[in-house]
Amino acid sequence: MNKLYYKLFVVLFLGVAISGCKLDAPVYPADTIYTPPAGGGGGGGNTASSRTITYTVDGKSTTLKNNVIFQVYTPEQKPPDGAIQIAGGASVTELFSLLANITGKGTFNADIIAVGTSLVGDGTVTVTEYSATANSKGTIAGTFTGELIDISGDGETKKTVTGSFSIKM
Questions:
Q1: Are the C-beta atoms of 129 and 143 separated by less than 8 Å?
Q2: Sequence-distant (≥ 6) Cβ neighbours of residue 43 within 8 angstroms
Q3: Source organism's superkingdom (predicted)?
Q4: Extents of the domains making up the chain
Q5: Strand partners of residue 138
Q6: Which among 66, 89, 95, 131 is placed 20 to 30 Å from 21, CA to CA?
Q7: Angle at 120 between CA 5 and CA 168, to 5 degrees
Q8: 9 vs 29, which has greater pLDDT?
């Protein structure tokens, strides 16, 4: 039960953090979510070409290109080896978060994969490019897949999520 509370806490924390970012909603074709870079292209590497998360749930693909980050947790913060959290989205409904004990290139178990406010689960992540440092700078890219549980419903409905990420900070 503690694992479920931990996942719920992460979802709620990210939801509150991301909901503080208010953007005017652009109009795009149905079943497409695209979040343009803040400030019309913004600096600091947060451009569409340097930070992207794409995921598919129930046949609907979502591409996040704004507010996409990765956070490095040291072994002291997340024993024994540390971890990396990949997150993005400009609103609570398109929220995405992945937490795994990533230590370099390879395949790792994803402790948490959260999509929106009601889909939480776990899975695997394969890292194909890795040069992340303790101050959350560098590059990380790869793919992920997992099984999510709809916590807003019966808690038993499972959905498959697949996707990829490429973040340069």
A1: no
A2: none
A3: Bacteria
A4: 2-168
A5: none
A6: 131
A7: 110
A8: 9
pTM: 0.69
Beta strands per DSSP E along 9-157: 51-57, 60-64, 69-73, 83-88, 96-100, 106-115, 119-130, 139-150
Q: How confident is the model at residue 120 (pLDDT cuts 50, 70, 90)?
A: confident
126-131, long-range: CB < 8 A, 24+ apart: 127/102, 129/105, 129/166, 130/102, 130/104, 130/105
Bridge partners, residue 55, by sequence:
62, 163
Residue 10 confidence (pLDDT):
62
Look at residues 70, 87, 76 and name the one whose alpha carbon lies nearest to residue 10: 87
> CA-to-CA distance for 46 and 39, rounded, in angstroms?
10
Q: How many helices (H) and strands (E) does the chain have?
A: 1, 9
- Segment holding 164, helix H or strand E: strand 158-168
Please report the pLDDT score of residue 124 as a whole number: 95
